[in-house]
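Two quick folds needed for the group meeting slides. Do the first one here.
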Amino acid sequence: MQERELELAGGSLHYTIEKEKAYITGFHGQAAELVIPAVLEGYPVAEIGKKAFLSKKGLRRITLPDSLEAVGDWAFAYCANLWEAVFPERNIRFGKNVFLECGCLTGISQRECGENERFQPELLAAAVRDMDAYYLLELPAVGSREWLSKWDARLAALLVAPDQEGYSRQVLCGEEDYGSTDLAAYISERRKGKVRLALLRLLHPRGLEAAFRKRLEDYLRSHTKGGEGDETWQVILREHGEDRAYYGLFAELGCLTGENMDGILADIGENDPEMKAFFLRYQKEKTGGIDFFDSLELS
């Protein structure tokens, strides 16, 4: 089948026409944002083919057409800077590892998901980015009670997985993501992964059962500064120092205490002044016998 080409801003789209449908086979270029057309040469764009956008490291956002029916294996794998993929409001057939190693992916959304309070683009992205749960890539079901229950079940399984799990395989394969053969560093990174997912779920609590909420909160508190490990604090400090939702949750959960306050302020130093001011005010209000978060509503 002869491959054809369409010039777009930032590159060229490659495709074929088969059985009165268009199939995207590849993209050449460095575009940061792409909107795939719904029609090519009068034929509906039905599929993004296998490895079509493999390793397109410049790609940050892609919008897929309403005509789309399927996405092939590894279609967006190793797109290291892809942060959002926007799909039509319909069921899409997904192949294997469509978003493999897309570490910046923060949202898999639908065109009108802003009008659908049920849809959970952040949780969906985390399911494939961090949880190896491609079975949750079911667009019509996203955000339903059953879907959220499956998401929580997967997170529950990850929480109880031994922190050293996979370490021997890493050493044998010579991988260096966690500091080569440093077991302590490996365990800490595993815990940070669990912390990120727990924080995300608490910030998107729709359908979250009380017992599982407590379990997530307990895990985060047990890994704050001065605890079993300080991974909760390290994630907040290194990744969310400018995000009030995250460091506010950190304080609200009781991860900020009288015992660790001085150490936390020392860690912040001259960085993240808004977070530092927030924590100082929190300490003042708390020691003054005033509910800090109620005071925020009054101020």
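Then this one, please, same format:
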Amino acid sequence: MEIEQVFSSKPRLKILKLIYTLGQLNVSDIGRRININYTSTTGHIKILESEGILELRTYGRVRMYRFSGSKKAQAVAGLIEAWENQSQ
């Protein structure tokens, strides 16, 4: 997938910013906080996971998503951090 496709979605950008800010969340919390349904949230997360930006951590029955340790994830986190620091 091309970078334009990953970043062309407002919900995906909101998911990335939210997880960057809060560390890790489950699908239901993500969807509720950005006001999209479970199915849409899951679809966006799967794209981000397949690109290596997010990773799944399972704690018993709870499935939490967070930034992975990949170079792509670090670059995205750096972009969000720079953007957020610039607007303060």
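Slide caption for protein two: Residues 37 and 49 are 18 Å apart (CA to CA).
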